[in-house]
């Protein structure tokens, strides 16, 4: 694919942050002997990666705003553009030495997401998308959602539950209804990775509640450009803001949504 100037900026930022995370990831094994050490270390790695992304994007587009997991919101002066950033999506994986995490960046223009990057620096997989330009893996393979038509044949990913969140009981009830209906349930620990892999046809569906905009935005565009569908739990068109995702190809998404609607 031919990347635009904006997408090149985003990829460069993701690669630089990825190099920092990869270096820090190599130190995690040495920190496992300490209860406090790994958590503190990962927090620093997370913040360092965000600083790298912020600096790179600010240098290239100084008038754009930011919405970041760690740094919060920074207003831009142009009033139209905003970077949405998760510098380390999959923090728990990182903490435990599991190589499933990503640098996730989306560009918002007005009310739309127009470009996105999801980069796993350990697996060295780069997923990119631009509005109207498709979604791509490593600039070579154009992504398309899987073509399966029956939930019984489908592998579905989810966030499972995070202890202590308000939707724990609901999510477990949803899981209890969905698991027997599908070929398998998977949990990567990184929502942006879930959506990128869904766009690539590795997964057939995805659902999660109480999910943050910086986790949804990059994958939302990726999925749309790969021909996928996303709604909230009520069936309304998917939004990065309401924290609910039910996604897949049109057929699988509809079947998954039907189950979710029936769970109270």
Strand content: 15-25%
Can you give the helix content as a percent range? 25-40%
The radius of gyration over CA amounts to 18 Å
Describe the largest sheet.
8 strands, mixed
Q: How many E strands?
A: 13
Helix-strand makeup class: alpha+beta
Shape: globular
End-to-end Cα distance, whole Å, is: 44 Å
Q: Which stretches are poorly predicted, pLDDT < 50 over at least 5 residues?
A: 32-37
Describe this structure in words.
- It is built from seven helices and 13 strands.
- By secondary structure, it is α+β, with helices and mostly antiparallel strands.
- The strands form two sheets. Strands 2-1-3-4-5-6-7-8 form an eight-stranded mixed β-sheet, sandwiched between helices. Strands 10-9-11-13-12 form a five-stranded mixed β-sheet, sandwiched between helices.
- Strand 6 (125-130) and strand 7 form a beta hairpin.
- Helix 1 runs antiparallel to helix 2.
- The protein is globular.
- The chain starts with a helix and ends with a helix.
Secondary structure blueprint with pairings:
Elements: H1 5-31, H2 36-60, E1 65-68, E2 72-74, E3 81-89, H3 91-95, E4 102-109, E5 112-120, E6 125-130, E7 134-137, E8 141-142, E9 155-158, H4 168-178, E10 184-186, H5 191-199, E11 205-209, H6 213-225, E12 229-231, E13 244-248, H7 250-261
Parallel strand pairs: 1-3, 9-10, 9-11
Antiparallel strand pairs: 1-2, 3-4, 4-5, 5-6, 6-7, 7-8, 11-13, 12-13
Compact summary:
The protein has 264 residues and is an alpha+beta fold.
Relevant terms:
single chain, 39% helix, 264 residues
């Amino acid at each position: 694919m031919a990347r635009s100037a904006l997408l090149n900026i985003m990829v460069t930022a993701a690669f630089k942050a990825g190099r920092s995370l990869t270096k820090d990831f190599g130190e995690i094994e040495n920190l496992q002997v300490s209860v406090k050490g790994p958590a503190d270390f990962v927090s620093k790695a997370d913040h360092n990666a965000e600083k790298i992304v912020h600096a790179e994007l600010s240098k290239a587009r100084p008038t754009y705003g930011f919405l970041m997991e760690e740094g919060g919101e920074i207003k831009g002066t142009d009033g139209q553009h905003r970077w949405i950033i998760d510098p380390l999506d999959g923090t728990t994986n990182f903490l435990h030495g599991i190589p499933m995490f990503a640098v996730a960046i989306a560009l918002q223009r007005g009310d739309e997401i127009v470009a996105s990057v999801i980069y796993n620096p350990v697996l060295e997989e780069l997923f990119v998308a631009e509005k109207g330009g498709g979604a791509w893996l490593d600039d070579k393979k154009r992504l398309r959602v899987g073509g399966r038509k029956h939930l019984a044949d489908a592998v579905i990913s989810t966030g499972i539950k995070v202890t202590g969140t308000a939707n724990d009981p609901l999510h477990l009830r949803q899981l209890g209804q969905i698991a027997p209906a599908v070929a398998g349930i998977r949990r990567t620990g990184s929502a942006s990775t879930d959506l990128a892999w869904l766009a690539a046809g590795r997964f057939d569906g995805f659902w999660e509640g109480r999910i943050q905009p910086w986790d949804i935005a990059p994958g939302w565009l990726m999925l749309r450009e790969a021909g996928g569908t996303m709604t909230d739990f009520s069936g309304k068109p998917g939004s990065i803001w309401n924290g609910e995702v039910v996604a897949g190809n049109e057929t699988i998404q509809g079947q998954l949504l039907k189950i979710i609607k029936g769970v109270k």
